[in-house]
Amino acid sequence: MTYTMINGNRLFHTDEGPGGDRAGETLLLVHGGGCDSHDWSAQIGAFAARHRVIAPDLRGHGRSTGLTGGMRPRELAADLAELLDGIDAGPVVVIGHSMGAVVASVLAVEHPSLVRAVVAVDPGYGFEAEFAPQLAAAFRVPDPVGTAVAVLGGLENPATAGPEAEALRVWHRRRVLAMDPMTVRDVFHGLFDEAGVPLTVRPGVETYLSRRDCPVLSLSAAASLKAKGIGGEWEESLSRHPYSASAVLEGVGHWLFQERPAEFNALVLGWIEGLPAV
Fold first, then answer.
1. CB-based burial of residue 179 (10 Å sphere; 0-12 exposed, 13-18 middle, 19+ buried)?
2. Distance CA 107, CA 89 (A)
3. Residue ranges of E strands in 140-236
4. Is residue 175 domain-resident?
5. Which of 17, 86, 126, 261 has a 20 to 30 Å separation from 27 between CA atoms?
6. 216 neighbors 244 (Cβ within 8 angstroms)
7. What's the pLDDT tens digit per position in 157-207?
8. Beta-strand (E) ranges in 102-193?
9. Are 221 and 254 within 8 A, CB to CB?
10. Which helix (H) or strand (E) holds 31?
């Protein structure tokens, strides 16, 4: 079954890979704001060769509905917790991109029994405090979709060229254009308005992220860290588990796992293989 009713919304998700004794870890892939689970097209097959892979569309995104409830990370994480319970899938390694890394971290902090480890991919947290109200204000406009297109477009890698890179840019832009404007507004307000500040900006986010007791792998684009004013060591300092690690990739944009899928897949799978036994 690819649809499950969760908190009044119909969530689309796929569940692939080996089962029983042949399965390794269970992986939960969480896309970013304004995106959907198709983002992981270059990962699902590679990961499912060894692991069970669950790839949902968050409420209001892709093929999932967003008729009830809000779009804050805690609400999105609650959906995933209920989904995992419903399909008997915990504990999982949560791999989250951008806003999905915020949601993954919330899941680890507030539903720790469901999370084995977190992989935070160019995460949507760690911004300077002044950034949040500025971005939230940018979405208080009649056309929040246009704002989202501009914001997400600015995260593309300008150094990449060719038909494949252009196809990714077109895909990212058209997907946002297809979203409900109020959903787009609520997604970004959920991350960056006053109530969401502790989960996205410094210094409040340090206290929250330090509550993740599980191993955390952070994979970030160098340009993203520079824009935030931090380095790869920032997140390492927040992860209490000794197996936690951080890597910074040069010459990539926000969707680094789509630009360099083979490198990304090898990094993530290698780290997962080394996870300490529970």
1. buried
2. 14
3. 216-221
4. no
5. 126
6. yes
7. 988 888 989 999 999 999 999 999 999 999 999 998 766 666 899 988 999
8. 115-121
9. yes
10. none
